Amino acid sequence: MTNINVITEDSDDQLLGDLPEPAPPSIHPSIYTRQTDPFSAARVKEIKRQIKLGDNLTTEELEELNEFIAKNADVFTLALKEVLPIPGAILNLNVPENATFNT
User: Fold this and answer.
1) How far apart are CA 99 and CA 84, in angstroms?
2) Long-range Cβ pairs for the range 37-41 (8 Å, 24+)
3) More confident residue, 27 or 77
4) pLDDT for 28-45, tens place per residue?
5) How far is the CA of 58 from the CAs of 50, 52, 62, in angstroms?
């Protein structure tokens, strides 16, 4: 796991937590169908496999979350190539010039 740190001008480094290693992607190419068939069973199954749900949830909560994921599968991406650009969108990170990052 990789530590996540926040560095700001007026504060010490803050340890936010660990960044989990990504799950190994499935080799089956038919799961990359966000633009053509975002709700395909294989794609939804892979999305659910890569999402870690808390082990303290009730059966009802797990069912509700799994239904939510399936109904909203079109907003999840399984690869960077599935991320759709937003025309006119601008991302400004506001990183100070003297900021340093742990690598």
Assistant:
1) 30
2) 38/73, 38/74, 39/70, 39/73, 39/74
3) 77
4) 557 888 888 899 999 999
5) 20, 15, 6
